[in-house]
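@channel anyone free to eyeball this complex?
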Amino acid sequence: QSVLTQPPSVSGAPGQRVTVSCTGSSSNIGAGYDVHWYQQLPRTAPKLLIYRNTNRPSGVPGRFSASKSGTSASLAITGLQAEDEADYYCQSYDSSLRGYIFGSGAKVTVL
Amino acid sequence: QVQLQESGPGLVKPSQTLSLTCTVSGDSFSSDNYYCSWLRQPAGKGLEWIGRLYTTDGNTDYNPSLRSRATMSLDTSKNEFSLRLSSVTAADTAVYYCARARVVRGVDYGMGVWGHGTTVTVSS
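replying in thread with the prediction:
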């Protein structure tokens, strides 16, 4: 059971906008700890997609964006493409657990 | 370009200790401050963080569910960090990843570099 809650799956047609939510609590996201997002394509290692809530590493397409508010964060993909079909994980730090925590992962399917 | 490479036995017997090493190439630990982590992913399941080591002072943090069995260490002379997980069972079968997060003025910038992962099976 993950500390951060994500929907198991999200789907959309090519070109549409989809969002993946990540809900935490007062000991992690709500305490002000940063949220990072990772993309895991099939049979590959995860890749950092968004760091420190809203920032895209060099090379990540601009159609990926993210936000954070209160005890939650959200990843948006605008202009969904077939190559975006992957699992997406949110990650933060929890002061009670004194370590990193992950969401259970959301599988994005392009219809 | 920085690369991380996991190495270790692919098969471990139940009750034994799993030992993995992550070798960093293209960079050195002295170049900056990092959190070096181990994570794992059972087949068809999500990511589980095992623990992290702060390269500046060697301090470690572990997932509470694994704290009693996990030990991480750093060897700066070899540019590598390691994981030992004791008393393994079939539940420890997974793909194991090492990853590194850059830390600037105490701020974690996320795990920007990952190894490809190594499959570990616990079976007699």
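from a first look: The beta strands of chain A are 9-12, 17-23, 36-40, 47-50, 64-69, 72-78, 86-94, 99-102, 106-110.
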